[in-house]
Amino acid sequence: MKGADFKGRGTGHQPGNLYENTSLVQEHIEGIDVPEYEENPSTKFINVSTKSALTVNDSPDLPLNYSVNPYQGCEHGCIYCYARNSHQYWGYDSGLGFETKILVKTDIVAQLKKQFEKKNYQPQPIMLSGNTACYQPAASKYKLTQKILEICLEYRHPVILITKNSLIDRDFDLLKKLVEKNLVHVYFSINHLDNKLKLF
């Protein structure tokens, strides 16, 4: 698909999916064909379930073994995001599909609790946002990150957050309780310090 400029989107492209055998093309427009993203696309939230809340990391570059990703895809739409390609595993593209098809793992809190309660589970720090942003706009509505932090506090489980979103302020009191028990580290990604560059 040819790129387009959509306000508030990181890309206007819809690249093909490397794992799909077929692709939708429009070689000959006949008047009845409507491009999927003819206008600025709206975001669709898709509820999914997960077999495991924890994603295992075996990369030698990262010292952490587990991450928790309550969402797949991200409305932040950072063009440099390394998580874009992972959206293809779900059958979507890494461009506009990544930014507009947000998978919400609605049962992730219950699954995480189950894993914490397994007899052979060995607690170690888990990273929130190993793949996509845990404080992306979807977190305002679904509050999965907040619920995960509540479970970590309840079970006294260490957790690490990576974010660039000011939505983290909402959970300040919860984070303060985690800090008091030395259970949390927070890392911020700051892409600029100029308020004039903010998108409203």
Describe this structure in words.
With 200 residues, the chain is α/β, with parallel strands linked by helices. The protein has a domain at 49-69 and 105-197. The protein is built from five helices and eight strands, in the order ββββαβαβααβαβ. The chain has helices at 96-100, 108-116, 138-142, 144-155, 172-180, and strands spanning 44-48, 54-56, 66-68, 71-72, 101-105, 126-128, 159-163, 184-188. It has a five-stranded mixed sheet with strand order 2-3-6-7-8, with helices on one face. A three-stranded mixed sheet has the order 1-5-4. Strand 7 (159-163), helix 5 and strand 8 (184-188) form a beta-alpha-beta unit. It is globular. It starts with 43 loop residues before the first strand and ends in a 12-residue tail after the last strand. The mean pLDDT is 84.
Any low-confidence stretches, pLDDT <50, length ≥5? none
| Number of alpha- plus pi-helical segments | 5
What strand order characterises the main sheet? Answer: 2-3-6-7-8
Beta-strand segment tally: 8
The biggest sheet, with number of strands, parallel, antiparallel or mixed sense and barrel status, is: 5 strands, mixed
Structural class: alpha/beta
Radius of gyration: 19 Å
Give the ordered list of helices and strands.
EEEEHEHEHHEHE
Tertiary shape: globular
End-to-end separation? 27 Å
Q: What is the helix content?
A: 10-25%
Report the mean per-residue pLDDT as an integer. 84
Strand content: 15-25%
